[in-house]
Amino acid sequence: MPAVANVVEQLLNGVTLGMVYVLLAAGLSIIFGVMDVINFSHGELFALGAYFALTLVDPLGATIGFPVALVLAPLAVGVVGAAIERFTVRPLYGRNPLYHILLTFGLVLIINDVIRFTWGQQQQQLAVPAALSQPVGAFGVRVALYNLFMIAVAAVLAAGTWLALNRTRYGMIVRAGSQDREMVRNVGIDIDRYYTLVFGFGAALAAVGGIVLGGAQNVNPNMGGSVIIPAFIIVVLGGLGSFRGAVFGGLLVGIIQTMTRTYLPVFEGLTIFLLMIAVLLVKPQGLFGNPEWGGGGEEDGELLVGAYGGVFTAGTRRRLGVLAVAALAVFPVVATVTDNGFYVTLANTMFVWALFALSLDFVMGSAGLVSLGHAMFFGVGAYTGALALLHLAPSFLVALVAAVLVPAGLAWVVGSLSIRVSGVYFAMITLAFAELLYSAVFKFEFTGGSDGLLGFDALLGLGGVGPRLSEIELTVAGLTVGSSVVFYYVALALSVGTLLVARRFMTAPFGSVLQSIGESDERAAFVGYDVTGYKRRAFVISGAIAGLAGGLLAVNPDTFVVSPDQTLHWINSGEVIVMTLLGGMGTLFGPMLGAGVFIGAEDVLSSHTDQWRMIIGAVFVVFVLFVPRGLVSIPALVARRFNAEGGDPPLGVDEEVNADD
Amino acid sequence: MRDPERRLSETRSHTRRRFLALAGATGAVGLAGCGGDGGDGGDGDSGDGGDGGSTDGSPSDLGTATVGVVNPITGAYSSLGPGQRNGAKLAVSQINGSDQYDLELDAVFEDTGTEAGAAQQSAQKLVQEDGARYLFGAISSSVALSLNEFAGQEEFVYFPGGAAVPITGSACNEWVFRVETNTAQVAEAISAYTVNNLGTNVWFHIADYAYGDSVYNRTKSRMQDANDEFTEVDVTRSELGSSNYGSFITQIGNSEADAVVLGMTGGDLINFVNQAAEEGLKDQVDLVGPTMSFLVVRGATKQNAVGTFGGVRYTVALETGDNGQFVDAFESEYDGTPDNFERVGYDSLRLIAKGMQEAGSTDPADARDALEGGTFTTVLGDVTLREGDHQATNPTWMSEMVEGEGDVATVDLLAQTEGEDALPPASDVDCEMG
Q1: What is the CA angle A159-A14-B259, rounded to 5?
Q2: Which residues in chain B have Cβ-Cβ distances shorter than 8 Å to A224?
Q3: Which residues are registered as beta bridge partners of B413?
Q4: Secondary structure in 3-state letters for A231-259
């Protein structure tokens, strides 16, 4: 077989995959361009297309069912997309794009659970007409006919979309809207009416992608999640909001993925993230993006911080804090007496996540740095902790110190590079770094590859002296205190201590500068502050705290494995943002509370229903829409309800919290 | 292509259902278990007895033992997990309804996904909250390896479902017993046949995790021993849970390979075989999969599997041990045909109960001592849990998938490897107990 034919076949493989990406990314990019919405649920709409097709093909048979599905299923998904825009996304216009990320993250949980509930967990085969499922060959090149069919379908749709955008009045308005929404409004066009249409159209395009890919591979509940990160990369590479960019980026990523897999397998999974980072650093607006366009998210609505100190006086707050710590201190005793030792283990998990959430809030709540890759510091902390226990010294202190230092160093490097870009681009570049690390741990022997790290155990001491944390068992006043309880108090002390230190930072001039940066970069710079320097320092501290959380995970006596998915996967970055918002951004303690509630709710719900993700997703959507300042703002919201007649609105709660904004 | 969403579902998916196994036909008459000997000193669940009594009216004097069952209900192995669970459930209901056992099993269930971090949470919950002192399950070898570690730490008896050699090899410990057939045993059946009958130029494509590595290492070394002409053309790896194999298929098709050994299973293997058939790879090379004969794989690949070769850990037509009874019981309970994972679930739970029965105690340490080196009648005949590594001495087979009655291919057994021949001596497997 000549090498040329081999390369051609691989190129065709790459183009096939690339064309599916084009269908996915085109909608994503147009939606962002027109409405500034980063739609995380786009992958689930892609999957929904394939599932609707499955429902049609099963009774009708492949020959008739498949073509019918290719038309009807995208229309149905288009309707779903339009409904999503109308009922959930619309109330959020004008808010920071972060809220769209959060909202659509909640929608991911809901749609995904609906899919699991309706069609089951197992992967299924979407039958395609027999005429299409055979190999064809010419000039020594051999390729599946279905691949050519996929390329053709995607090409026709992409061309059609291009024509619609460039040759119709609708397209012209949409393009104008993606460049300057205000201008379109000012000339008297109600651009909002077009949003529903654009969202539905984007969803339908994704659905076609899901169907054609489902026919080639299979249909499974995870297919949406597996394409959403590549789709983001494509949109960023091509330029947010640019259709041409989506086409070019889709093909580029498809080809690069296929070619590295074939010719440079060591770099598989790394190249596209490196490319994404490089593009963001050199040309943040993407290869085809226009820096003049509004799509940067930088000048958009503010982040709503929690109603810190809304109704309670400083003294009350302090008393509540002391009370909370006291309650936490007696909790293990109660749990042990009542034979509920498992809840101590669960609480230990909450501490780990509470610290992780605190770390994110440190940069997001103050300086407005929305990191979509915070799991990298958490994960590197966990890996460093476990590696230190395995190779350096089996001491939990050594492990924790290493778990703080290494992520702090990493945060300095990542921060130095990433802080040059802001807003959505910052979120995307941190995501790229995190994914780079996630891919990397699979490749190294010393990180244990996909198996993760096993066989580490922490001593409660230094230099090899001291009891094993996992074997500690004391008897205090007739109660047997196990290792989980000992760890509980270590984690409690570290959590409270870290919170106090973080608060100290925030009440110091350092914190004030960060907050002023969060309000306006430019203003802070005009006043003479080194904005980049401050942001970087905050980022390093945040990385260190996230590392501490990861380190705690590693030294936790109930942890017997540190694996890639458990620590470095992007879903962890997403969840920690959810926790932060749930609790109340910018309050430091709110996100810690949010973490506890999230982990607790998950445990309780999963014990009672299979559809617990759907419930969490729905609660989350409700929070984004109606309680954007989080749990900590509830007392203030309640108080305001009571004071509605004549009373002064409590501090820190403004009209924006209203459901109707 | 990475499958992040795979993790979304698995990271924290632990659907729990306490399975209340009913006592058998003659019925429980509410005889309280007498509290057992409570010997495990664990979380106190072992001795609390159930309402169930044994069928002849004599008390279940060993009491009730809680058994945790963890299976992948989500993720790449979601097609295999339910079978493993059903096999375990069948065993529990038979044991609780039988007068051969002086004990009852209380089974609690969790989902592992395919990822060790998620499995960790599930297993912790079963052991710490539900008080399970016996654990069965997992299909991913990575998950099984991490649960090995957990079993060693917490000192409970664990029957893993993964097939990678290290589970009862370099990562073995005194608490782990494996009824699942491992890759060394299957490699023994397929390696010599492949290299002597299908061709000496062999390509390996594996899923990049513990099981894939194990298939590669073991099959390659047995092929080298079987034929001097054996040549490894290349080895490629894809991530566990991948969906897109196009570029690998192109590479393999354009090489000199006579056969490709697929070190992958479940959804991964199904995707590979279907895509390979569409791209015409089957006309160019022989596909050999250590797990190609799995019913789930044949069911999802249909005609695409015809003409491929595979190792056999179990097939419904076997006349070994008490397979006939197992197949009948399974078919009447579940309205389907059992396969390997059902077999593993069934025999693992039975051996857990037999271990306790033989020890006369529900204490995991006693049961462990009784299981070690013991010979038991299973679906695959009389097998021994070897003293040196706790691996069951299962027989294995080489097979070809041929046209079946419906559109699902049938397993045609080509050659059998006896249990004692399928495993290297326990002294050679690099297992140090303790």
Answers
A1: 145
A2: 5
A3: B399
A4: HHHHHHHHCCCCHHHHHHHHHHHHHHHHH
Q: Given CA atoms A527, A530, A532, A538 in this order, what sign does their dihedral have?
A: negative
B312–chain A Cβ distance below 8 A for any pair: no
Most B CBs within 10 Å: which of A222, A267, A442, as the mutation test of the B interface? A222
Asked if A45 and A193 sit in the same domain, the reply is yes
The verdict on a CB contact (< 8 Å) between B209 and A439 is no
Domains in chain A, number? 2
Tokens found for residue A383:
């890996």
Q: Does the CB of B13 have a partner CB in chain A at under 8 Å?
A: yes
Q: Which of A439, A476, A446 is nearest to A569 (CA)?
A: A439
A178, A204, A229 - which closes a domain: A229
Residues A514 and A394 in one domain: yes
Q: Do A225 and A321 fall within a single domain?
A: no
Mutate to test the interface with B, among A42, A121, A454, A579 (most CBs of B within 10 A): A121
Distance separating alpha carbons of residues A330 and B129, to the nearest angstrom: 20
Q: Which residues 599-618 of chain A have a CB within 8 Å of chain B?
A: 602, 606-607, 610, 613
The first and second tokens of residue A331, run together, are: 């909790």
Closest chain A CA to residue B116: A563
Dihedral, CA of residue B349, residue B351, residue B352 and residue B354, to nearest 10: 120
Contact between B9 and A222 using a beta-carbon 8 Å cutoff: yes
Neighbours of A628 (CB within 10 A): 24
Q: Pick the more confident residue, B129 or A553.
A: A553
Q: Does A559 touch chain B (CB under 8 A)?
A: yes
Say yes or no: A19 and A143 in one domain: yes
Is A608 a domain residue? no
> What are the φ/ψ torsions at residue B167 (nearest 5 degrees)?
-60, -40
Residue that is last in its domain, among A212, A229, A246: A229
Tally of CA atoms within 13 A in the half-sphere of A40 that contains its CB: 26
Whole-angstrom Cα distance, residue A91 to residue A192? 12
CB contact under 8 A, B241 and A222: yes
In this complex, the residue of A147, A349, A565 whose CB is nearest that of residue B11 is: A565
- For chain B, domains (ranges, CATH) are 63-181+318-385 (3.40.50.2300), 184-312+396-417 (3.40.50.2300)
Q: From B7, which residue of chain A is nearest by alpha-carbon distance? A: A565
Per the structure, the complete domain to which residue A459 belongs is given by 314-569
Q: Is-contact A249 A234, C-beta < 8 A?
A: yes
Instruction: Write out residues in chain B with pLDDT < 50, as ranges.
Output: 1-59
Answer whether residue A616 is part of any domain: no
As a whole number, the mean pLDDT across chain A is 85
Yes or no, beta carbons of B3 and A339 under 8 Å apart = no
Are A180 and A323 within one domain? no
CA A279 to chain centre: 21
Alpha helical stretches, state H, A61-144: 62-84, 97-119
- For residue A575, being part of any structural domain is answered with no
Of the candidates B336, B419, B337, the residue with the CA atom closest to the CA atom of residue B378:
B419
A324 with A457, same domain: the answer is yes
Helix%, strand%, coil% for chain A, nearest 5: 70, 5, 25
Q: State whether residue A451 sits within 8 Å of chain B by CB.
A: yes
Report pLDDT digits (tens) over A598-630. 999 888 888 777 788 888 889 888 888 888 888
From B78, which residue of chain A is nearest by alpha-carbon distance?
A: A122
What integer pLDDT is reported at residue A471 of this predicted model?
66
Identify whether residues A318 and A441 lie together within a single domain: yes
Asked if residue A260 belongs to a domain, the reply is no
What confidence tens digit (pLDDT) does each residue in B53-78 have?
Answer: 334 444 458 889 999 999 988 777 88
Tell me the residues of chain B between 59 and 98 that have a Cβ less than 8 Å away from chain A. 73-75, 78-79
Mutation pick from A45, A256, A569, A604 vs chain B, by most beta carbons of B within 10 Å, is: A569
